[in-house]
Amino acid sequence: MAEVEARAKPVLNPEYCKACGRCIEACARDALVTGTEVNQKSGLAPVLFDPALCNGCGLCVEACPEPFGFVTTDEATWLADAAERRKAGRDRAPAPADVPAEALPLASGVPLVVKGAHAGAIGALLAGCRHFFGYPITPSTEGAELMAKLLPKHGGTFLQAASEVATVNMMFGCAAGGKPAMTFTSSPGFSLMLEGISYMIGAQLPGVFVNVMRAGPGLGNVGPAQADLKLACRGLGHGDTHAIALAPATDQPGRPGRAIRSGSTTRPVIWPR
């Protein structure tokens, strides 16, 4: 009778265990029990695993909802090697250094008649913005599309996020790394970003949000309106938040807006005439 090759046993990464107990229910050998000691990295009490009772069936790996909680032996080896490669990369990385802003003269050209969203994208590019994060939403998608076409040609990065919430948090990380970033959105998307915007304001991190307003309330429609001025000027997220809000005075060329300093705050606002 041929000898049956022993199956490799899974590996538990306690710092990734969410203590949900699904692996305990899946194990037929009682090799897993509820943990009682809190892991200092996760703040949770991971399950306890006894490899001596395990037959290597792999049901615990299938049951685990956390990708790195229970892994196979091969996956554990790959993760360890990846961690070593990351550490070696950090050790070889140069020390971070400030990159001073550089002002370059703008070459003369002819006037352009473009969509407002396109104008915002072109202006951001000329101002030095090379990082864009966003999620498509009518009627602001044209600006994001143009940035997706132009940024790669100018050494920039365009990344479509999974949602508006993801977008603002990506902008937070980019700004924290010292790089200016922007996004295009519309009223419902802007509402979803408010918590992240309030965090950016609290951390004193810059970001540009081009909000192409929908007529509200709620999801609204694609008709124009100006109710988001209240949202931008009178409360961005939670707490005592203030930010610079700029709005066109008219859709006709050659008529600039009027800057007004509101109260004792330091947020210049261009109001419609």
What are its keywords?
273 residues; alpha/beta; Alpha-Beta Plaits; 2 domains; 10 strands; 32% helix
User: What is the H/E order?
Assistant: EHEEHEHHEHEHEHEHEE
For the record, what CATH class of the largest domain applies? Alpha Beta
Number-wise, the strands total 10
Oligomer: single chain
State the secondary-structure class.
Answer: alpha/beta
Alpha-carbon Rg, integer: 26 Å
CATH topology title of the largest domain: Rossmann fold
In CATH terms, what is the architecture of the largest domain?
3-Layer(aba) Sandwich
pLDDT averaged residue by residue: 84
Principal-axes shape call: elongated
Give the termini separation: 92 Å
User: Helical residue percent?
Assistant: 25-40%
Number of domains: 2
How would you name the CATH homologous superfamily of the largest domain? Thiamin diphosphate (ThDP)-binding fold, Pyr/PP domains
Low-confidence stretches: 257-273
How many DSSP helices? 8
Notes on the structure:
This protein is an alpha/beta fold. It folds into two domains: 11-86, 2-Layer Sandwich (Alpha-Beta Plaits); 116-271, Rossmann fold. It has helices at residues 22-26, 59-63, 73-92, 116-126, 141-150, 164-176, 187-202, 228-233; strands at residues 11-12, 32-33, 48-49, 70-71, 131-134, 157-160, 182-186, 208-212, 258-261, 268-271. The strands form five sheets. A two-stranded antiparallel ribbon has the order 1-4. Helix 5 links the parallel strand 5 (131-134) and strand 6 (157-160). Helix 4 (116-126) runs parallel beside helix 5 and helix 6 (164-176) runs parallel beside helix 7 (187-202). 22% of the residues are buried. Residues 257-273 have low confidence and may be disordered.
